Amino acid sequence: MSEKISLTVSQGGERLDKYISNHTDFSRARAQTLISCGSVWVNGKEAKKNTVLNLGDIISIEYEEETGPVFAAEQIPLDIVYEDEDICVVNKPQGMVVHPAAGNFSGTLVNALMAHFDKLSDLGGTDRPGIVHRLDKMTSGLLVIAKNNAAHENLAKQFALHTANRRYLALVHGNLKQDFGTVSANIGRHPNDRTRMAVTLEGKEATTHWRVLERFGSITLLELRLETGRTHQIRVHMAHIKHPVLGDEVYSGSDKRSRLKGQILHGYRLELDHPVTGQKCVFLSPIPDYFQQELMRLNSTFSWKEEIGL
Description:
By secondary structure, the chain is α+β, with helices and mostly antiparallel strands. Helices cover about 15% and strands about 30% of the residues. It is built from six helices and 15 strands. The strands form three sheets. Strands 5, 6, 7, 8, 9, 12, 13, 14 and 15 form a nine-stranded mixed β-sheet that branches. The protein is globular.
């Protein structure tokens, strides 16, 4: 199926292929292929990959949508926190991928959802039925699933307007000097590694609020609240202020050979308005075993649990 994309250049001086890769889901290699095949125009004229863009240029891209492998329903247990006719809230375990993608076409949350529910929203596409927002593979926590398109549209708007509230617990390296703070830094694709995100001037606005729950000397327990929902946001922001999440092999160089299997990061609270009734809903997820084990190893007092409602 042929698809079309139109982009208006917001900042001049960048090469066409790089601009496309930074502002779409295309890799730079695919952007170059599309340009070479005559599928990209700038201001109505067929472009070359070394074209340098000017502010206000109009980029037009026409391409054939890539089709992925067929994936199927799988009988995978789900930890359902809440369910009604319109939504379902699930507690995703650490290590589970949310939806099928290259290298992960089975064993995902979507495969489990397809086996559990007869109908899910399709606004996210055929490979993401019901998926309104995501968590990284090695991040555990709460996700709301839309069972129909009306619920999906309403929930997506809440996340876009930042009225849906998400809170996380994380163990991070170092002892933060303040008791609370905010990181406001744009996040985009890493300029040299498309598999990673980074703080970049050209990235999308991102804001993370944090506060200290307990200190362990060289490690600190934080509660974090997201205003935005960028890919890897907490992990990138904490690494940016030199306090990367414990166990994060991607954004913490010291954890590349860690005994941990992934970052110690858990989405423990989700607050939103029910998409049909409008009722304020608050969902909580208990601290998972892998996280508790680290807290016990650090001799945590757990005195903060009641404060955050757990």
